Give the backbone structure.
Amino acid sequence: MPTVSVQIVTYNSSADIVDCLSAVLAQTHKLEQIIVIDNASADDTVEQVRSMIMKEQVSIKLVENTVNTGFAPAHNQALSLSSSDYALVLNPDVRLQPDYIEQIISYMEEEPQMGGATGLLLRQPATDTVDSTGLVLNSIWRAFDRGAGDQAEKWKQSGSVFGPSGAAAIYRRTMIEDISVQGQFFDEDFFAYKEDVDVAWRAQLLGWKSYYCAGAVGYHKRGWKKGGRSSQPLFIRRKSYINRYKMIYKNLSGLSWLKSLPKFLVYEIAANGYFLLREPKVLGAWWELIIEIPRLKEKRNEVKGKQRIKRETIEKQK
């Protein structure tokens, strides 16, 4: 039986972590390891995890970071603590049905080039509304959760997808090791946001495939979206904004993208015009990108050196 580890990064996740872990412990596929990395929560997340370990008499590796290192670095930290055949990267606000892992692993075992997979994530509490069936990247390199807002009835067919959403993604260990750049699976310069899209794009460039398994179901709370953009800290809004450009710089090359240039420029003028008028401080994130260009260039060159699939082919799969 292939081994599977589950890794969860928490940050002030006390409202969700117990339900999340309870669903993980109920999985029909035996788990080799459960890892919780806490990013310096100010609430009682850690105490709840400890209490659950004692109450349920289960083995959960709990790591308490003294600072919030970010989603990407913390998940890389968890990956370094396991050696299982597969790793489930899971958000604490996701609750999985008992056969989620079993359904996905059974398919991935039949497809050696299937590096990542996700199931049908439904919005909680509106459990008939789709949250995500994976990631999609459009012609101007904006990423979306595929099927978001649709009725679940429309997404009963399993199949290929650009990449799995980082909310509940299962990755094959051999792919994790193959596509890591400078020892990092998730690019730690992203901190959080778009890191799963960057991984999906890089995986495709190196010849790996991703899959959507309609029979594997989970429920995603997405509590962080409440209140809209204005309620999010400036640091988070800057990361969400600038990480798209980092991703494009690292993964896009060749000349095929020129056909999308007019549409891209129209969108960029409109979007950045909005930020200039309504959220000018967000544009300060460009300094971060400028500073990181040398490091991003090194990563881009490393991916290019390992590349097995033409970038033009990736463009056609959007």
